[in-house]
Amino acid sequence: MYNMTFEELNGDYSQERMDTVAKALEEVLTSALPQGCITVGVYEAAKSLNVDPDNVVLCILATDDEDVKDVALQIHFTLIQAFCCENDINILRVNNTRRLAEILGGGGGGGKQSGGEPLDVHCVLVTVSIVVRSKWVLLCFDFIQDVER
After folding, report:
1. In sequence order, which residues have a C-beta less than 8 Å from that of residue 28 and are 6 or more positions away?
2. Which of the four, 84, 105, 141, 148, has the lowest number of CB atoms within 10 Å?
3. pLDDT 10s digits, 96-121
4. Could you give the CA distance from residue 125 to residue 12 in angstroms, rounded to a whole number?
5. What CATH number does residue 55 fall under?
6. How far apart are CA 109 and CA 121, in angstroms?
7. Which segments of 9-134 does DSSP mark as H helices, in order?
């Protein structure tokens, strides 16, 4: 079961469709990770966006219930979203940081960095690579376009 949900949806989307998009997102991330096409962390993402926004194809903003009260994080999200919109970068908002950390941490580390600290998965960027042509990326992009309509 792919336990990731998407926030701020406009329209009626079935659980089956959400599960398909969650699976697609997981495939995109697990394919891009070994290729070095993932940037993890709010500050790291902001630096990457500033240096080379043309190579970013997807921005994932993730929160859990406790993050809603984090004013600094919400300000960062607002700025990152504005930058992504200005540069035509697709944005997905998800609300399961633990699952995202598991995917990006390889599952075995429980979403932790090599030093034992938890990954900051509040913002994840996927950059251009061969993975861009995969059916999973296209499925995510189709979903984003449907939501924007």
Report:
1. 58, 126, 131, 134, 136, 137, 140
2. 148
3. 899 999 999 854 444 555 555 778 99
4. 27
5. 3.30.1330.30
6. 14
7. 15-32, 42-51, 71-86, 97-104
Cα 92–chain centre separation: 6
Domain that holds residue 73: 15-148
Distance CA 41, CA 48 (A): 10
Look-up: residue for tokens 């990457």? Answer: 48
**Residue 1 has which token pair?**
């079961």
| pTM assigned to the model | 0.76
Residue 70 lies in a domain: yes
Q: Which residues of the chain have pLDDT under 70?
A: 1-13, 106-116, 129-139, 141, 143-149
The single-letter code of the amino acid at 145 is: Q
Residues 6+ apart with CB under 8 A from 123: 40, 41, 42, 45, 46, 59, 60, 61, 62, 76, 77, 80
Overall number of domains in the chain: 1
d(CA 79, CA 106): 29
Choose among 43, 37, 76: nearest CA to 57. 37
| 3-state DSSP assignment of residue 37 | coil
The amino acid that residue 80 corresponds to is: I
